[in-house]
Each structure stands twice: as C-alpha cells, then as structure tokens.
Specification:
Blueprint lengths: L1 E3 L10 H6 L4 E6 L4 E8 L2 E5 L1 E2 L4 E2 H7 L10 H4 L18
Parallel strand pairs: 1-2
Antiparallel strand pairs: 2-3, 3-4, 5-6
C-alpha cells in the first residue's frame, strides 16, 4: 500500500486500519519532507524498515529516485477553503480549461 502525505491529512492515524486488514507493507511518501518511510507489519504492528522484502526495493534509493513535486506549505483545512483543483473557482485561471 502506498500513502502520500498531504497537508493536514491523517496518513499516520490509518496504521491501525491497515494492520487490522493485514496489509504486509506500507510505503508513506511525504512530498513536503521529500522522504519515504517503509513500514512492515510484524506481530500485528508496523515497524520501520529500510528495505521491502516483498518488492526488493531499498527505501533510501527509492527516495533518491522520486521526482518530488513542489508542495505548497498550506493546510487547506486550516485555511478554511478547498485546495485549488480544476473546476474549483480558486484554481488558477491560467490553468482552467
């Protein structure tokens, strides 16, 4: 399973849900920190791992290979409005179709 951290989201609070559903590995990518955390289910709990036994991928190498996007430092829920997405009036007009 892959989770991408967004400003104000609840990625880290979902670990219990994934463990209860026996998700063997969880990759958490945080674009703001430009980091990848690999978690492996062990005895019903997640432990951090440097390597994925299932995918045979090293977390550090994966982190280096990701073309990280530029992420705005805005928590849209705290700002009290929706993030700029197509169809939303706050989406930049230069990008609207």
């Amino acid at each position: 399973m892959v989770e991408v951290v967004s400003p104000g989201d609840e990625t880290w609070q979902k670990l219990g849900f994934y463990a209860a559903h026996s998700v063997d590995e969880l990759l958490i990518a945080d674009p703001a920190k430009r980091s990848v955390t690999w978690l492996v289910l062990h005895a019903g709990r997640y432990v951090e791992a440097e390597y994925s036994p299932l995918l045979r991928v090293d977390a550090a190498k994966l982190t280096e290979q990701i073309n990280w996007p530029t992420v705005p430092a805005v928590d849209w829920r705290e700002a009290g409005r929706c993030p700029p997405v197509p169809g939303n009036p706050s989406f930049p007009s230069s990008v609207r179709s």
